[in-house]
Predict the structure of ATP/GTP-binding protein.
Amino acid sequence: MARSRRNPRRTQSGHGKAGPSKWQRFSGSSGGDISRALDPAPRIERDELGEWYVRYVPASGARKPYTCPGCGRGIPVGTAHYVVWKNDHLFGDQRAIEDRRHWHARCWEIR
Ligand SMILES: [Zn+2]
């Protein structure tokens, strides 16, 4: 079957978008990684204790085991989870990041 030929759009302004983008594929990682670190920036959530930065860690980014403060259980390597730290920490942002906690995604959501 012949492909109906669309008008090829020529980009005239000089955005040199030439080369094929390199896809970095994770070799050997199977399973659904939902958002492949599409959103590296943490989002901010508020509750009665203040503001929290919440950052999603995809399974491919979880390279160490952690303990979830929500349930007290471990978060195995290769498990997608959240990293959470306080926005308005008494001792400043640096300290807040040092005090960050790793939560099961579910534990954070239902806490
Ligand atoms: Zn947990």
